[in-house]
Amino acid sequence: MSRIQRDIIVREVGLRDGLQIHPTFMPTTDKLAWIQNEAQAGVPEIEVTSFVPPKLIPQFADASEVCQGALEIQDLVVSALIPNLKGAQRGIELGVKKLNYVVSVSKTHNLKNVRRERDASIEDFKAIVNLIKTLPLEQRPFIGAGLSTALGCSYEGKIALSEVVLCAEQLLDAGADEIVVCDTVGYADPALVRAVMKAVLAVAGHVPVAAHFHDTRGTGLANVTAALDCGIKYFDASLGGLGGCPFAPGASGNIVMEDLCFMLDAMGLKTGVNLDLLLKTRETMSKSLSDLKLHGALARAGLPNGYVSTLQAQEA
Amino acid sequence: MSRIQRDIIVREVGLRDGLQIHPTFMPTTDKLAWIQNEAQAGVPEIEVTSFVPPKLIPQFADASEVCQGALEIQDLVVSALIPNLKGAQRGIELGVKKLNYVVSVSKTHNLKNVRRERDASIEDFKAIVNLIKTLPLEQRPFIGAGLSTALGCSYEGKIALSEVVLCAEQLLDAGADEIVVCDTVGYADPALVRAVMKAVLAVAGHVPVAAHFHDTRGTGLANVTAALDCGIKYFDASLGGLGGCPFAPGASGNIVMEDLCFMLDAMGLKTGVNLDLLLKTRETMSKSLSDLKLHGALARAGLPNGYVSTLQAQEA
Fold first, then answer.
1. Could you give the percent of chain A with pLDDT greater than 90?
2. Is residue B194 within 8 angstroms of chain A, CB to CB?
3. How many angstroms separate the CA atoms of B29 and B37, rounded?
4. In CATH, what number is assigned to the domain containing residue A200?
């Protein structure tokens, strides 16, 4: 079998960003089936859980089991959200090879979200990187740093570009292996995306920059288009657009993985994802919980008639 | 009162493209209230009806009354779809100042849609332009020519760019005042949009080129972003994304007017549309028929906190 070619790396975040606000516990076996099926469909990286204390978010009570199960899947990059140093320690002990940490550029949002000043959160990140540096090289996980509310904040509204760049620099100086620009509340538009991505790319140097968009106001894939123009190659998304926003009932969540993969594929950009298998994964996953509200246009409309995917074109 | 500034012209097509597949008749007074409210919200152009025979589409049995009512609204560009010469005559008699004609680039689609060969449809267009030329200058309507299925066809799949350009040239030679590139079945992606728009703009010269996108597979606003990059300034959309596709139950229709206007406005592009009034228009319209299925993210999520629109910024 030939090695899968990918121009763009799509990353599933629904098991974390989608399920974290979902009131019903998804059984661990269903989470693992979701991960297994989506990996099989060709999604190369999945954020499988969060090491937030189960007291705060009971959905993640099975974080260890989910990680252990996911880590058995060949060639899948398994990542997990770590809220603090303790989370990093758990991730390292479990052998998770990619840990994702998040700081809100909006100081108000950071305070409300994790009850810490933004500077304190950046100090925490430094402590996490220092812990990682004590490990033998081959045991060190990749450490991603997300800039939450980088494109707008429901408390502060617009976020100054200088603050985004400052946070990015602080996280890069601390040793981030990746910067993720996050539109946490779905305020972004393509013009803002271009401005922010250009500024972050300018300071990131060789460190990869990823995009994490929400589709709260319908601009998700338009923002992807703008980010692609800037040269961004890493995109977070969630199957069925799980996610939503606790402050906007019924609103869409993360950009829809199926729609994202279709758009990229139609543009001739290889994601390595088999769209049919991805749609099947959605279907299976949707049966797991009766109160899941899925979004997404491709699942309703189906692929264009006679559509030839980049995967099929490669095989032909 | 200062004259409204507009960088982009958005055009409502829901009363025609949205309602034409809707099984329930929307009362004429409700149609006129929709038009009135949306014009008041600042939408500068509305395709109010189609002169298709009511035997074929009963929804348009009130075409004359709707036109007459709409034509009383100050500063609104009232347009109507004309399927043929007879439709053009009706539009001219009613004093409609903009007539929209459509040819499918896909020969199969044209045959299935209007039971005529594509070349015959182009001949019909020539006859319509010739009729218009017999009128005194001040009575001549503006005649738009739509290229249906220019970005893909549910019968033929991909459409050759050379065919799109050929049709555009034929319609321009015949005397079209505007070319509308239509993604009739929602197959387009941003890369294809760029290729097609560039090619059509190259032959259109000084004749304006507009975009008519559907959001069937979620790529609608991403395609708008790509078209904006090409310099397109005219966009069709429908309130609540009315439209759908008879072959894809539940699928989205035209791009959502509210989401389009929000995205453009957030990008700093003036549309002249008051977003609050537009959302109110949607709400009122949605009560007209109980079986309408509306789409759209902005209506669910609301405007960003502290959002200042370009209209408000202008007034400040």
1. 91
2. no
3. 12
4. 3.20.20.70
